[in-house]
Write the structure tokens for this entry.
Amino acid sequence: MTVQTAPAAEATALPAVHRGGRATALGLTGTAVVLLAMAVLPYLVATGVTAQLVKLCYLVALASMWNLLTGYAGMMSMGQQAFIGLGAYLLFVVNDHGLNVYTGTFVVSALVALVAWPLSYLAFRLRGGYFAVGTWVIAEVVRLIVVRFDSLGAASGRSLSDVTADPVLRRAYTYWLALAVMAAAVLGTYAVLRSRLGLGLQAIRDDDTAAGSLGVNVTRGKRVIYVAAAGGCAAAGAVICVNSLGVASPTQIFGVQYSALMVFMVVIGGIGTVEGPVVGAVAYFLLDKYFAQSGVWYLVVVGAAAIVVSLYLPRGLWGTLAHRTGFAVFPVRHTVRL
Amino acid sequence: MTWVNAIVQGMLLGGIFAMAAAGLSLIFGVMRIANLAHGDLMILGGYVASVAAAHYGVPVPVTVLVSMIAVGALGYLVQRSMLDRAMSLGELTPMLVTFGISLIIPNVLVQMFSNDAQPLSTGSLGTASIDLGGGLAIGWFPLITVVAAVAVLTALHLFLHRTQPGRIVRATADDRTTVRLMGVDNRRIYALTSVIAFATVALAGSLYTMRQGGVTPYEGQLTVLFAFETVIIGGLGSLWGTLAGGMVLGIAQSVGAQISPDLPLLAGHLVFLLILVVRPQGLFGRSVPA
């Protein structure tokens, strides 16, 4: 086979594939600065502020995990509360066995990922809307099994006993834990998406049949994501548990409202972008902070906003901005410049 | 005999599940929309019935019709204003929209009618039963529910297979592009499908409310799971599968309750998951899962 050499004039005009480059470096530097600034906050501000930010951190983590599942692997789960609840409850278990809650969170995350692996075989029997509901049923089953354990407080929840005694120190540690979980969720998503697996995932999301025919192992890719997202949600669940020093009731921590939240944050921010869930989480955090007192009307507004945005701004806030300007903090797309 | 009773009661319970699932199955079958608001629409149907009876003095049996008309009309509006557009934006958007609706309905109901149960009494019919002897009794109302479910499913079946609009609905489900080439406006077919589906779920909701003696705003979260489980157990594309799915789920819950009073939900879910493992296409489903 002979290789055709292109004329020199055309060779200079060969398309080049770009993937961020300078933007990547800038984005990562910016992120590092923001994370560092957030990390020193406990030394600078009152504990009340960091206590609020803990919530923002776990919201970002949850939204990122749902985005990874739905926005990149095309799996709309309505049952991530299974892993949030399991994360919180397993934290009691490892804590009872003498592990402190901060290291415990990471152990719990790994354990729940391990539980999610066999569950994926069950959930993957279903697709699309049926997958959504199937995962919800799995979450209900997990909840109904957990409430059967008297040692875990049965139907009435449980409080966390062995946490650092000094309340100021405890607040700071909890905040750093939440910050670490958030950073791991966002940067982990970014790393996955820039990997070979991520490329396959984006192909799966666009058309799983076509992706499969091109040699992407669709099921394996989805499984890795499902397991990883379960671990991420479990870590967030453990943070929620540490933050409120326990679980008010299984119905609450296994509540489908967590799925509602995740859907809302991701849709508003922009599905299928790394930044979107962060933007959506901030948007929800502010909504919740300022309007939660106005009763359930605000949930009606949340529902209506989800409808309006998904119909008229399907890329979400960040997605629309990024699409119009080509701007990205975490570029994952391969752009061809002609 | 207690076990026989549990199975009989389970079958009676299954009637309500089958009816709830009929509309869900229809919308999914024709438009590929997994309607996450289905349970909340059912509860809304129950609210319309109980409010019509309590505040406007509509005779209880007629409230069923009122509810079907009101929610059916809502189905038309939702389809035309949101779902048509959502369907053109991909697979996920319709689900997100129905999800948004499922967040709006119960919270509006709470705001308007508080969290207390809205009663809807069927009087002596609610407790009347046929005694079969040996501790076996069949409640009149649950029996009516089963008969209604069979009637609704039969009517749907006849509509889809014996009438011209029904044939078009089925053709649209199979291949909407070709149907459009034949000069049929598929959006009208979708609107028709939604009206029928919403009206049947209103019927299910009214009967559910009468059966329970009342309804509270957030019950939709539970009923939507039952409806989906019924559809998946029965298998998509089979109306008789829907009936069978309802019966299987009803019996599982009822037998579960017989073993231990806190088991019915778990037993139902476990039977559902078991069927998922053994036969993901459902009992009567086509070999290719949806």
About this structure: The first strand of chain B starts at residue 118 and ends at 119. DSSP finds eleven helices and four strands in chain B. The first helix of chain B runs from residue 2 to 31.
